[in-house]
Every structure is written in C-alpha cells, then in structure tokens.
C-alpha cells in the first residue's frame, strides 16, 4: 500500500501527465464557443487553463438532474470556468468536491418546515446554483451558459459557486478562504469586512452598488459575489474598491483589469 507521501507523489505525477496530454480539438471548440473569457487570456495562461480542465474532468463526477443529459459541452463549459479560479495558484483542484449536479434551468429546493404552532412551511426556493460544504456543487445549465456568454455583466454562477468551494476548503464557509500567506489574513479581514459592511449599509439605503447586493447576505456571499465582480468588472472594481481589488488580485494571482 502507498503511504501518504507515496500517494501524494503519485497524485502529482498523474495530474502532471493529464495536464500534458494533447487537448481534444472538440473540447477546445466548446471553450471557444461557450467561454469567451478564455480568449482574453495570454497564450500561456490559456494553455495552463486547458491543462487544469483535463485534471478537473478526470477527477470530478457530473450528474444530470431533471432529465438533463450530461454531454461534453456541459462538462467542458463548467470545468473551464471553474478552472479560471485555479490559474497561477497551488491547487488541489477543489479537494472536497466530488460531484457537480446540473439541472436544465432554475430549480426548486424545499422550504423549511412549519413551526409547531401551526405556521405553514416556507415556500420552495428557486435557485441557480449552490455549493455544499461537503462534496457537491449544484448548477442550473441555462444560467451557466448565460453567465459565461457575457463576460462583463458581473454575474457568473460557476465563478460564484466555485468561489464558495475555495472558501469552504478549510471546512467553514465564512468569506475567509485559505490564503497564500499567513501575513494576508489581517488585511483580508480588514478590507473585506469594511467593504462588506459598506455594502450592507448601501443595500439598506437602496443605493446603487457595483458589487451585487446579494453579497450583503453574509461574508461568504460577499466573497463569492466579489469574485464575480473581480473577473467580470475588474476595471470598475479596481477604480471603486482598490483595496478589495488588491486583496483578490493577491489571492487569485491574476490581474483581469489588465486583460484586453
């Protein structure tokens, strides 16, 4: 049996071999069609992305729900967007994640049970996606396609839910993912805490905001929504929230505001 170090070495070698495989022409065509953000990357970053996609698709399970058939288009479109968050970073490829459940469109989850005092149960909730702390991401396919097709609208359900996965790698979805350096935590808490509080105040006062108001729900949602904004409205974010932009730039090791 392989010991821990032996298994770790085997996994690294296997992933390196997967990244080095020729990328299927059909998959490249899917990314060209469905994930225009990839075209804005440098040639080196694009090749890194394609390598990550090969590892991701080898290790994660996809399940169709409500009649959706899982095709290469579904798998590759989702994987390419999820792997954007992994560029330039030491990554274990979302280690808690096992399966991606994909619905054709917005899906309903049951509401909470009614109280013992005869109160009715909460109404079912319509959702576009969700990230569970243990092993599952759920996505609505039409929202995946719509979010990927417009790279400047600030909304991308895959980036949002996979930001939650990064946040949850330490077992807690609290808006504080595992940072590259211990020295980053103080500034991270100060900057994201301040901008979260400001978003809450702006939302309560019905002020217009660059960062979607859903981010005012809690710090975990703020990090996920800020991630969407960082990749989809990077120049606006850098101009209006420069310290927040810098924190995300250091975390993701990318500078999307400088992409063409």
Brief rundown of the structure:
This protein is of the alpha/beta class and 260 residues long.
Protein described:
This protein has helices at residues 4-20, 25-34, 43-59, 72-84, 141-149, 157-167, 184-204, 219-232, 234-240, 242-252; strands at residues 61-64, 97-103, 107-109, 125-127, 129-131, 135-140. By secondary structure, the protein is an alpha/beta fold. It folds into 2 domains: 16-112 and 119-149, Cyclin A, domain 1 (Orthogonal Bundle), CATH 1.10.472.150; 174-260, Collagenase (Catalytic Domain), CATH 3.40.390.10. It is globular, with a radius of gyration of 19 Å. The model has no long low-confidence stretch (mean pLDDT 92).
What is this structure's SSE topology?
Layout: H1 4-20, H2 25-34, H3 43-59, E1 61-64, H4 72-84, E2 97-103, E3 107-109, E4 125-127, E5 129-131, E6 135-140, H5 141-149, H6 157-167, H7 184-204, H8 219-232, H9 234-240, H10 242-252
Helix pairs in contact: 1-3, 2-4, 3-4, 4-5, 6-8, 8-9, 9-10
Shape: globular
Look at the structure and give the mean pLDDT: 92
Task: Give me the secondary-structure category.
Answer: alpha/beta
Overall tally of structural domains: 2
Q: Share of helix among residues?
A: 40-55%
Give the DSSP E fraction (strand runs of 2 or more residues). 5-15%
Number of strands: 6
CATH architecture of the largest domain: Orthogonal Bundle
N to C succession of SSEs: HHHEHEEEEEHHHHHH
CATH class value of the largest domain: Mainly Alpha
Give the neighbour order of strands across the main sheet: 1-2-6-5
Low-pLDDT residue intervals, each spanning 5 or more residues: none
Count of helical segments?
Answer: 10
Alpha carbon gap, first and last residue: 49 Å
**What is the CATH third-level topology name of the largest domain?**
Cyclin A, domain 1
Sheet having the most strands: 4 strands, mixed
- Alpha carbon gyration radius: 19 Å
The CATH superfamily of the largest domain appears as: Glucose-regulated metallo-peptidase M90, N-terminal domain
């Amino acid at each position: 049996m392989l010991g821990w170090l032996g298994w770790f070495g085997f996994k690294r070698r296997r992933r390196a071999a997967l990244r080095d495989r020729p990328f299927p022409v059909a998959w490249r065509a899917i990314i060209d069609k469905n994930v225009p953000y990839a075209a804005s990357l440098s040639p080196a970053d694009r090749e890194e992305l394609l390598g990550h996609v090969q590892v991701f698709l080898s290790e994660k399970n996809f399940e169709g729900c409500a009649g959706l058939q899982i095709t290469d288009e579904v798998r590759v479109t989702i994987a390419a967007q999820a792997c954007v968050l992994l560029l330039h970073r030491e990554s274990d490829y979302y280690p808690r994640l096992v399966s991606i459940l994909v619905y054709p469109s917005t899906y309903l989850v049951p509401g909470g049970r009614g109280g013992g005092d005869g109160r009715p149960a909460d109404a079912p909730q319509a959702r576009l996606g969700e990230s569970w702390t243990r092993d599952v991401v759920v996505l609505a396919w039409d929202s995946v396609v719509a979010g990927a097709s417009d790279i400047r609208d600030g909304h991308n359900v895959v980036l949002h839910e996979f930001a939650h996965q990064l946040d949850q790698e330490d077992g807690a979805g609290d808006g504080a993912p595992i940072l590259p350096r211990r020295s980053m935590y103080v500034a991270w808490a100060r900057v994201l805490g301040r901008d979260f509080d400001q978003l809450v105040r702006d939302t309560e006062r019905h002020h217009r905001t660059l960062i979607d108001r859903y981010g005012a729900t809690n710090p975990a949602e703020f990090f996920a929504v800020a991630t969407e904004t960082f990749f989809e409205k990077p120049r606006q974010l850098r101009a209006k929230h420069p310290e927040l932009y810098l924190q995300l730039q250091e975390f993701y090791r990318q500078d999307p505001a400088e992409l063409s």
